[in-house]
Amino acid sequence: GLVAIYITGDVHGDAISRFSYRKHPQLRELTAQDIVIVLGDWGIPWNKHTQEQDKYTIKFLNEKPWTTIALRGNHDNTDALREMPQEEKYGGKMRRLVIDGVTADHTFVIDEPTILTLEGNRCLCIPGADSHDVWPVRNSFTGLNIVDKENDPNWKSQVRNFKQRGLFYRVKGDSWWPDEGVNIDLCDRLLDNETGRFDFIFTHESPAIISRELGFA
Questions:
Q1: Reported pTM
Q2: How far apart are CA 210 and CA 91, in angstroms?
Q3: In 3D, which of 39, 107, 30, 14 has the Cα closest to residue 68?
Q4: Across residues 16-34, what is the average pLDDT?
């Protein structure tokens, strides 16, 4: 039968709420042939503090019939994803979610540029994005509000300072990873040998013209 492809994004680790049958009864109609695409900020895994919840979420997703494919965004743990088994599916490369011995049956994350073929459609997938919630002030590019717990002995006071001033900040290795952005070199390498057209482009990062309009570039 006809394969349904649903598209969502910014799950931020809360797949249980996002894919609730009560909230979204149409999901009951999905079968093992169907696919849900998450356009970045999947958030599973996140960090050591969410590991138990992440394992519970994988078990929850294992009970769903459809395949979930998430792209890495700017709120995704790039270090943890790199440690997960990579396999080929729908013609492209992706990581099967495995957290502390709990393995996903049909949930995957794309963490590097790849091309999928979905129902005869060629889909260019470009994971990664630059965080907009680490700049001290919008349109100010003088530095990042990144807390480095490993190398800064005063990191706790730095956190207090950010909180007192009501500023965005992220913690390296806990909520921010240096290689969060789109890997342009891998994109170029992937596209060097591609001459055909793409039916869809899946990404979490907006085009530069849109980012400029929003004040993020």
A1: 0.89
A2: 30
A3: 107
A4: 94
